[in-house]
UniProtKB/TrEMBL annotation:
Organism from which the protein derives: Streptomyces lannensis
Residue span(s) of domain Fatty acid desaturase: 73-331
UniProt entry tagged with the keyword Ribonucleoprotein: no
InterPro entries on file: FA_desaturase_dom, Fatty_acid_desaturase
Identification of the protein by name: Acyl-CoA desaturase
Length: 358
């Protein structure tokens, strides 16, 4: 896949103008892929995922066991915070399952993905798969990537100029509202999952809906049977809000504030993935908390690569990008949030300017 034009990529930490297509531009990824394959980094890791899935299931079961054992007490808010963290880890496992990092076969991936997603945390595996597949195909493309659609936040100055409704109301001060808005992300995942059941394009709607209903029924029954109404509502609020914040903080560093594309801007596959992604530096704790998504560049280039191989792949990919002259962006976690928030504030300027003028 080659660059169709000298399209300007804007709205990143530094504006990038990809070079005009070269005769060998389409083979850049093929050469990188060969190096990755020869290093054995695409091989499955059944042992790793057996341990990881077992630990996540055990911690989830342990959290709900502690919930029942504690009974009607305000100490349950600590359990709510713990389960918010574990729900986030379940979501990260569902992400790996969706990318077939765990199982080679689609059927096995879908079965376990629905168990972890729909039944485990109340998030539709089918809805998320559809949305995430479109994101991976065209990351940060304003018309093609659903993750940068101007529904609540605006991601470019052009979106800000054309914004309306809630996006326009929030857009001028969205950088300050970003983290508070993340407290609603957990609720949004449940609502979006339920709404997706009415879409004709959703596959296995009956199964998806049944598992979602079982999760919601079991979740609310547990809360209101074990806790008094006030404590149940408090538990729900703390749990879902912290779950949303954790998920948002996991995904926000990946692309927010990186270059965006519009219209016919389509660099080749390697540049499309690398230029729009940001890596987050850190040690094993960062790998654990972000589920390997801190290696976002490598993940986008090789979505089916098992998580434990991403750290080794980074060395290969970064050196290769330097070799062929493709910018490779990585930073610390706090700097990634700073870049994302700075970008959100900057692109909201047209809304603030229009308000001052009116």
């Amino acid at each position: 896949m080659t660059i169709s034009s000298e399209a300007t990529v804007t709205n990143g930490p530094a504006a990038v103008r990809p070079s005009r297509s070269r005769p060998d531009a389409g083979s850049d990824f093929a050469r990188l892929s060969q190096r990755i394959t020869e290093a054995g980094l695409l091989r499955r890791r059944p042992g790793y995922y057996t341990v990881r899935l077992g630990l996540v299931i055990g911690l989830l079961a342990g959290g709900w066991t502690a919930f029942v054992a504690l009974g009607d007490t305000w100490w349950q808010l600590a359990v709510a915070a713990f389960l918010a963290l574990i729900f986030g880890q379940v979501a990260l496992v569902a992400h790996d399952l969706a990318h077939r990092q765990v199982f080679r076969k689609r059927r096995a991936s879908a079965i376990w993905g629905r168990l972890f997603g729909n039944l485990g945390i109340g998030m539709s595996y089918g809805w998320w798969m559809n949305k995430h597949t479109r994101h991976h195909a065209n990351p940060n493309h304003e018309e093609l990537d659903p993750d940068v659609a101007p529904d609540i936040l605006v991601w470019s100055t052009e979106q800000a100029r054309n914004s309306s409704g809630l996006a326009r109301f929030i857009g001028g001060h969205q950088a300050f509202l970003f983290f508070p808005l993340l407290t609603l992300e957990g609720f949004n995942l449940h609502v979006a999952s339920a709404r997706a059941l009415s879409s004709p394009s959703m596959k296995n709607r009956l199964l998806e809906g049944t598992l979602l209903f079982l999760h919601i029924a079991a979740y609310l029954s547990a809360l209101f049977l074990v806790l008094s109404p006030g404590k149940a509502v408090a538990f729900l609020a703390v749990h879902q809000c912290l779950f949303g914040v954790y998920l948002g903080c996991t995904f926000a560093p990946n692309h927010k504030g990186m270059p965006t594309f519009t219209g016919e801007d389509r660099p080749d596959f390697l540049r499309r993935q690398v230029l729009t992604s940001r890596n987050v530096r850190g040690g094993r704790f960062t790998d654990l908390m972000l589920g390997g998504l801190n290696y976002q560049i490598e993940h986008h280039l090789f979505p089916s690569m098992p998580t434990p191989h991403l750290r080794r792949a980074q060395v290969v990919v970064r050196a290769y990008c330097t070799e062929i002259g493709v910018p490779y962006h990585e930073t610390r976690i706090l700097q990634s949030y700073r870049e994302a928030l700075t970008h959100l504030h900057r692109v909201g300027e047209p809304i603030r300017r229009q308000r001052k003028a009116s």
